[in-house]
Structure formats: structure tokens, C-alpha cells
Design brief:
The complex is a heterodimer. By secondary structure, chain A is of the alpha/beta class. Chain A contains 13 helices and eight strands. Chain A has three domains: 1-38, no CATH class; 40-247, P-loop containing nucleotide triphosphate hydrolases (Rossmann fold), CATH 3.40.50.300; 260-311, no CATH class. Chain A has helices spanning 3-8, 12-24, 27-36, 56-69, 98-101, 124-133, 169-174, 179-182, 196-207, 230-246, 249-279, 281-291, 297-311, and strands at residues 44-50, 74-80, 89-91, 106-112, 138-142, 159-164, 185-188, 219-221. In chain A, α2 (12-24) packs across α3, α2 packs antiparallel against α6 and α11 (249-279) packs across α13. The radius of gyration of chain A is 21 Å and the shape is globular. Chain B is globular. Chain B has helices spanning 19-30, 44-53, 68-81, 100-105, 118-128; strands at 6-10, 34-37, 58-63, 88-93, 110-112. In chain B, α2 (44-53) crosses α3 (68-81). Helix content of chain B is 40%, strand content 18%. Chain B has a five-stranded parallel β-sheet with strand order 2-1-3-4-5, with helices on both faces. Classes of the chains: A alpha/beta, B alpha/beta. Chain A binds chain B through residues 1, 12-13, 16-17, 19-20, 23-27, 82-83, 86-92, 94-95, 98, 101-102, 107-110, 112, 114, and chain B through 1-4, 6, 25-26, 28-39, 42, 45-46, 49-50, 52-55, 82-84.
């Protein structure tokens, strides 16, 4: 199987294997990205974030079903936490997505965070490029259940939706920074439950404090469970897309994404390089000096950093 | 490069008893593996498709309904059709001794019955998953 050609042809097995490679930092993943990158840029990437249990997975599956019914190909990258102790993970988002799991044009990939803290996996960005090259029209990126600081999705998606459920009023008050700032739209899920109107009002009142211009994030009430309001979400995402194009923001965003693609690769390489340096026997002696306070961490970091450059 | 073993824990057929599958899923996670759980009452078609989409190394099938002789080989056949016959398929649940040779002939690499220590299943996966160098 030529994975690169398979990805370009939209072959599921090739797409899946390519994502595994970029996730594992396998050099073959980099080769695939090099080979397919020119074919990216056509998919529209949407991020969904929000508290655990807000209904992100159910909502994503409803959105995917609706778009698939319109003849669109939909890719879903669903991130769940990895155990900080074993490094393993139980990736359970799929359990709530089985309605669409066998729809021909929907691909779902579960990812563990593997130690990343921003709500995604470090390879999520490149996995989205692979789905893009494979001809998916829409890519949904679902974060781990997020609190306030897991805002990485904003750097991966063109449109970010923050999903909430009724009954978290005080939380919203506390969320004026971080996650409340990255939403291009706010979705109050479980709108059939008590308190949905109140939550919507509270979100709106926090949003009114924002000084940004050009796009006022709409607050939508939906029920993923009952499958109501889903078309309104799609309409709003499309409206936001139109806004980004008309305002020229999409072009700026694409340059920003390119920069972040490069930054992600640089960060991974530097981290590998530094980790290797830290394992050197000579460094162990220095580490002991830091431990016994004969040296300090900044001084040792300076030495390691300089040596790394000299060795490359 | 960091390789993780990815395991699909799947419940084929009309069988609502998934305590065992969940205990195994947890054990695999604690062993550092990434586990995708299907939930109950899945078809062999769904399971094979998910296995391919998720690029798993192992499919661990659990069945307590007695339909294993039909359902387990079906999953193996469908994986082969999808060109994914390198995926290790193992089975467990309430499976009579007499059925085990039949299942093994049909591509189930190993069958684990009630009372199998969790470590046995974990070790089996670790020693049988061929991770590319």
C-alpha cells in the first residue's frame, strides 16, 4: 500500500495509517505530509470544545449525519485524555457516534492527549491536514472535556464552537477569560432541560463585555439528543465562514495556520533534541549538582542548549 | 518515536453484558495501551470498519450470548476484505472449550475464557502485536 497515494485517493486504511504515523512521530508521517500538503486547504475545519458531559460527541455525530445527508464528506478527530500514569487511554467518544460511524462518508478517529495539555493531541493539527488532503469537505475537531485553559483548538479550527449545558451559570461567570474568548459561536445543548434559557442569557451577558468587532458570536440552543437545532448550527458555521472570507480574516488565518504547522514541527524536534541531551551521561553529573544546589537549573539549561546547537 | 498499542474492545451481537469488556478495557489502559470501546450490540460490519478507521493493532471481541461461532469469524472475514488481516483478533467471554479449535481455524488467534487473569491478556497482546521497527 502506498500510503501517500492512498491518502490522496481517500482510502480509509491509508488515511488511518498516515494518522498513526504522524501521531507516533514516525518519519514516514512527515514524508506523507510532504507529499500531500499541496492538496490541503480545501476542507473547512471546525472545532468543538466544552465541559465534560456537555454533549460534544453527540452533537458532532448529529452534525456529521446532517452534512453526510447533504452529500458532504466529514472527518472527525475526537480527543480524549490519556492517563498521566500509564500513558494509556480509554477513547470513548465513539460510543456516542455510532449512528454515523457506518455512514459511508464519515471517518472518525479517536486520539489520546498523550501528555499534551491544551485539550488536543500534538498530532491533531497534522491529522487534520491528512483528512483535508484525502478530500474531506468538513473536519470536526472535538477536544477533551475542557475547562478554562484548553484553548488549542482555536489554533487548529477556522470556526470554534463552545458547547455548554444548562446549569453552569457560576462557571460561566468564572470563564470570562480563556474558553469564553475563543468561541465563534456558543451552543447551549440539552435545551430541553430546565435552565437552558437562563444559561443562554448568562452567556450572552458575558459576551456583551467583549470589545471585538465584526462578528458577534451567536448563542444557539440545541438538543443533540432530540436532534433539534442542528441545521441552525450548520447555518451559523457557514455564516461565520462567509464572514471570514468577506473580511479577509480567512487569508490571515491561513497564514497563521501555516506558521503554527511549522512551529509544531520545530517544537517537537527541539523537544527531542533536548531530551536526548538530558540523557547524556555527562549531563547526569550536572543534574546531581543542580539537585545538591551546587548549580541551578537555568545555568544547566544554558549549557545544554548551547551544546545542542553545536552538535547539529 | 513513540508507538502505542491500539486496541479495539468490541461487543458483537445481541449481548448487553459488558462488565467484562469494560474491565479489560481498563486493564489495557493501565498497561499503557490506547483502547477504543465500541459499546454494546455492534454488528461485525461496524466493528471491522471501526478497526480500520482507528488503525488498531488488536480487536478484542467479547461475547456472552453464545453466538461467537457466527460473529467472531465474520469479523475476521470482513477485516480480510478490507485488507486489514494484519490486525490481531482475539476473543473472550463464555465460550465452550469445544468451540475453541473452530474459532482458531477461523482466524481468532486466541480465546480467553472466564477466570483468565488480566495480566495474561495484556501479556498476550504485548507479545503478539508486531510493531514495525
Amino acid at each position: 500500500m502506498d500510503v501517500k497515494l492512498g491518502v490522496l485517493a481517500g482510502d480509509t486504511r491509508a488515511v488511518a495509517r498516515a494518522i498513526t504515523w504522524v501521531e507516533n512521530g514516525d518519519p514516514r508521517g512527515a514524508e506523507v505530509i510532504r507529499g500531500v500538503y499541496a492538496s490541503t486547504g480545501r476542507a473547512y475545519i471546525v472545532g468543538l470544545t466544552g465541559s465534560p458531559g456537555a454533549g460534544k460527541s453527540t452533537l458532532v455525530s448529529r452534525l456529521a449525519a446532517l452534512l453526510a445527508a447533504r452529500g458532504q464528506k466529514v472527518g472527525i478527530l475526537a480527543v480524549d485524555p490519556s492517563s498521566p500514569f500509564s500513558g494509556g487511554a480509554i477513547l470513548g467518544d465513539r460510543v456516542r457516534m455510532f449512528d454515523v460511524a457506518l455512514t459511508r462518508d464519515v471517518y472518525i478517529r479517536s486520539m489520546g492527549t498523550r501528555g499534551a495539555l491544551g485539550g488536543l493531541n500534538r498530532a491533531t493539527r497534522m491529522a487534520a491536514r491528512i483528512l483535508d488532503a484525502a478530500g474531506f469537505d468538513w473536519i470536526f475537531v472535538e477536544t477533551v472535556g475542557a475547562g478554562q485553559a484548553e484553548v488549542d483548538v482555536h489554533d487548529v479550527a477556522y470556526t470554534t464552537a463552545v458547547v455548554m449545558a444548562p446549569g453552569m451559570g457560576d462557571d460561566i461567570q468564572a470563564m470570562k477569560a480563556g474558553i469564553m474568548e475563543i468561541g465563534d459561536l456558543f451552543i447551549i445543548n440539552k435545551a430541553d432541560h430546565d435552565g437552558a434559557d437562563r444559561t443562554a442569557t448568562q452567556v450572552e451577558s458575558v459576551l456583551q463585555l467583549s470589545m471585538t468587532t465584526g462578528w458577534n458570536p451567536p448563542v444557539l440552543k440545541v438538543s443533540a439528543e432530540l436532534n433539534t437545532g442542528i441545521d441552525n448550527v450548520v447555518d451559523t458555521i457557514e455564516r461565520h465562514h462567509t464572514h471570514l472570507v468577506a473580511s479577509g480574516k480567512l487569508d490571515a488565518l491561513k497564514i497563521r495556520m501555516a506558521k503554527l504547522d511549522v512551529l509544531e514541527i520545530l517544537k517537537a524536534r527541539l523537544a527531542d533534541m533536548m531530551k536526548q541531551q538530558l540523557e547524556q551521561p555527562a549531563v547526569q553529573v550536572e543534574l546531581e549538582k543542580v539537585a545538591s544546589k551546587q548549580s541551578d537549573p537555568y545555568s544547566l539549561a544554558d549549557i545544554i542548549f548551547e551544546q545542542s546547537w553545536r552538535n547539529t | 518515536m513513540e508507538q502505542k498499542i491500539r486496541v479495539l474492545v468490541a461487543k458483537p451481537g445481541l449481548d448487553g453484558h459488558d462488565r467484562g469488556a469494560k474491565v479489560l478495557a481498563r486493564a489495557f489502559m493501565d498497561a499503557g495501551m490506547e483502547v477504543i470501546y465500541t459499546g454494546i450490540r455492534r454488528t461485525p460490519e461496524q466493528i471491522a470498519e471501526v478497526a480500520v478507521q482507528e488503525d488498531v493493532d488488536v480487536v478484542a471481541l467479547s461475547c456472552l450470548s453464545g453466538a461467537h461461532n457466527t460473529l467472531f469469524p465474520k469479523v475476521v472475514d470482513l477485516l480480510k476484505e478490507k485488507g486489514a488481516d494484519d490486525i490481531l483478533v482475539m476473543g473472550g467471554g463464555v465460550i465452550p472449550e469445544d468451540d475453541i479449535p473452530f474459532l482458531k481455524e477461523h482466524g481468532i488467534s486466541e480465546v480467553f475464557g472466564p477466570g483468565t487473569p488480566l495480566a495474561t491478556c495484556v501479556d498476550y497482546i504485548r507479545s503478539h502485536v508486531k510493531k514495525e521497527a
